[in-house]
Structures are given as structure tokens and as C-alpha cells.
Design goal:
Structural class: alpha+beta
Strand order of the largest sheet: 1-2-3-5-6-7-4
Number of strands: 7
Mean pLDDT: 93
Helix content: 10-25%
Number of helices: 1
Radius of gyration: 14 Å
Shape: globular
Distance between the termini: 25 Å
Length: 127
């Protein structure tokens, strides 16, 4: 896997942003984006769990990166999330993004947040 550069002042991964989430992204040999991240109380929504907006932000970024590294310069038009299980704080969570389709005017991607036991806690699909 290849470690990707941060994006300056990006909210999710920027090193120059004092309020960044601090994600570090990797690109695998299938052009899939991958990260392992431990969310803290700074990312809390319900007590002990990650805020849904933080989940949406990291999945949007992972899916967008997968599309950018596939060579398409796009922005998110639509993002749908399926919150299947609460994402706990303090545990390593795997975040994955992948491009899954392209038509003449649309590029589609999926993303997921995976718990340590392999359960998909949050699934996303976007255009």
C-alpha cells in the first residue's frame, strides 16, 4: 500500500488545519482507499460513540479519493449512508473507499467503516 499525501488544510486529513480529524490514507494495488483510525472524544456524538457527521465526512473523503486516484476530478453530488451499528470511540476502525461505476455523466463510489470484528458499521454510496 502507498501512503497518500495530506491535503494541506483539509478538515479530514490536512496537516496544516489545527482542527483536522488527522486521517492518514493509503492506496492499495486495486485503487482502493484504506485507513485505520481510532476516533476519540473529540469525534463523539452519542456518549461513547462517533458522531454520524464525522462518519459521513471520512467516508465522503475516502470515496472522493478513490475517484480522484482513478483519474476523475469530481465533487460529491449525492451521499447516502446506512448507519448499521454505532461506531465506538477508542477502537481501531477501518475506513475503505472504492470507485464502483462510471457512466457518461456519473462516477459512483462506495465506502464503509468496519469494526474490529469485521462488521460493517456504516455503509455509504455516492455519486
Amino acid at each position: 500500500m502507498k501512503k497518500l499525501q495530506d491535503h494541506g488544510s483539509c478538515f479530514v486529513c490536512g496537516k496544516t488545519n489545527p482542527n483536522t480529524l488527522g486521517m492518514e490514507w493509503y492506496l492499495d494495488d486495486k485503487n482502493q482507499i484504506d485507513a485505520c483510525f481510532i476516533f476519540t472524544t473529540h469525534h463523539q456524538g452519542p456518549p461513547g460513540f462517533v458522531h454520524g457527521g464525522a462518519s459521513a465526512a471520512v467516508l465522503d473523503e475516502a470515496m472522493g479519493l478513490a475517484i480522484w486516484y482513478a483519474g476523475y476530478r469530481v465533487v460529491t453530488v449525492n451521499l447516502n449512508l446506512d448507519y448499521r451499528k454505532p461506531v465506538p470511540l477508542g477502537e481501531p476502525i477501518q475506513i475503505i473507499g472504492a470507485m464502483c461505476g462510471k457512466t457518461k455523466r456519473r462516477v459512483e463510489a462506495t465506502g464503509k467503516m468496519v469494526l474490529p470484528d469485521g462488521t460493517v458499521a456504516v455503509f455509504a454510496k455516492g455519486v
